[in-house]
Every structure is written in C-alpha cells, then in structure tokens.
Amino acid sequence: MEPLLKVKDLTKYYPVRTGFRLKRRKLWVRAVDHVSLEIAHNETLGLVGESGSGKTTLGRTILLLEKPTSGQIVFQHLELTKLPSHKLRELRKKMQIVFQNPSSSLDPRQRVKDILCEPLKTLGGFETQELKVRVSDAIRSVGLSEEFLNRFPHELSGGQKQRVAIARALILEPSFVVLDEPTSALDSSVQIQILNLLRELQEKRKLSYLFITHNISVVRYMANRIAVMYAGKVVEVGKAKSVLQKPLHPYTSALIASVPEPDPEKKISAKPLKGEVPSMVNPPTGCRFHPRCPFAQRVCAEKEPELRIVQDGRLVACHFA
C-alpha cells in the first residue's frame, strides 16, 4: 500500500541578516536539510531529537505553514507544493496540527464553542444546526462535557485546554495530524491521560500521526516507527522497538542513554555527549555529528553519509553503522 504521506529531499532555509555592509555574504539557517520520510495509513511516526534539531520546523513545513525552500511533499498522491491555492485550501481539512502550548494556541477572547466553530466556518460550509452537532460531538470525543463549550480558555486547566486543542484539530475529520510536543507543557499525571486519548482517537478514526517529541519514554509508548533528527538531518529511521533496543547511530545511542532510570542501584554506564548542537548557519562538513561522536574517523569529516538501508529496513546515516 502506498504511504499516506511521502516527503522527499525537503529543505527549509531561513535567510540571516548580516548587517549594513556593502558586500554582504548571503547566509542561511539550514533548519531542515534534505529530509526524506514516509508515514503510512494509521501509523504513528515519532520524530525525536534535541531542542533546535529542526523537528518543529519539519512538521510545520510538511503542513505548508512554512513555505519549503525545495523538495516534495506528496499527500494522498497529490504533490502539495504544486497545488493551486483553492485545491490546497480544500486539502487542509485532511491535515491538522496540535501545538505544544495550548495556552498560546487558543484565542483567550473566544469561548470554547467559538474556537471549535472557527475551522468549520473557515473551511466548511456547514448549516447552523450541523455546526452545533459537530461541536457537541467534538467536545465529547475528547472526554469533556458540553458545559465546557461556554467557558473561556482561562477557565480551563492545562489538560482541558489541550483536549480542546485536540478537538479543534479533529473536528474537520482529518486523516493526518502533526502532534508538536502535545504533552510537554502538562503535569505527568495529565500527560498519560492525553496520550491514552490520542491512542484511542487514532484507533477509532484511523488517524496517522507525526509525533514530535524529545521524550524517549513518550515515543516508546506512542510510536510504531521512530525517526531521529540531528542538526536538520534525519540520521536514523526504523521500527520503534528495534531502534530503542538496538540503536545503530551513535547519536541515537546517546539520546537513549540520556533517559534517567528510576533505579538508584543502577549505575550510569553511558558517557555524556561532549560539545553542543552545531550552528545551523555553518554546520560541520561531512557528518554533522562527527565533532561530538566518540567513533568519528577522518572520513566522517570529509564525506557526508547517506541515509541507507542497513538491516531489517532500518535506515541509518553513518559510515560505520
């Protein structure tokens, strides 16, 4: 079966201002640099990496909230970057996003019912009675009663706000949803409730998720497959269980080793990574991870590794994987 979403050589560069010199050198922030991914029907692809690795920019660019610099985005056999605006507007019903912080993504001046009605009015064309039915169904589907429809966002808890944000994303009945760290702003006890809700909704509605997170424990619970991103590049892709049990890229190993173990008797065996995430304006030559990699050799600084199949369908961008 063809994947629901296919991304090929996607890039997103941002220009950098370098002052008022007469001869300015044009610099770019390489936030997303030739990324290729696939997401199947009813699948969750977990996208992990350090802060600043380009995860959120990739998610926003896939939805065309950010205009890509180059590359292809194929959704339901349609090339999004080549669609006319009226066709793209119609297709947006099938592609939605849940942002990280619900307090900033919900309009504080609107009641919950107006927040949920807005996408229906903007992209819909529904009768008034149908609007009411859809809004009522949406709020109930995320575990809230209809009495919440008359409340403002400041009258809701963090978990309730995120449930409203999820309801708003799903009210147009999409098939693909980008989840941009949807639980990172919530308490631990609320996080598992939201994660369970997302899994339940996925099962009922046959949704596909791009789940962006830096939390390995969350991606272990949610994802079917994992893509690891470093400095604008995808360095490893594979089934969640195999990637977490036997990482093949040194950066993936370091990410997994950094997860704290709730066992005071267990000794920490992994050494912390040296250095910092490289500049996205002037990234290292060759493999971008080589200045921090304990296994780096001369070829790593000279030649950029390709994302290639290593074993069992696992894709790894490393010369020595």
UniProtKB/TrEMBL annotation:
One of its GO terms (biological process) is transmembrane transport. SMART domains: AAA. The keyword ATP-binding applies. Keywords: ATP-binding, Nucleotide-binding, Transport. InterPro entries: AAA+_ATPase (IPR003593), ABC_transp_ATP-bind (IPR050319), ABC_transporter-like_ATP-bd (IPR003439), ABC_transporter-like_CS (IPR017871), Oligopep_ABC_C (IPR013563), P-loop_NTPase (IPR027417). PROSITE patterns: ABC_TRANSPORTER_1, ABC_TRANSPORTER_2. Coiled coil: none annotated. It comes from the Archaea. CDD domains: ABC_NikE_OppD_transporters (cd03257). Residues 5-256 form the ABC transporter domain. Belongs to the ABC transporter superfamily. This is Peptide ABC transporter substrate-binding protein. It comes from Candidatus Marsarchaeota G1 archaeon BE_D.
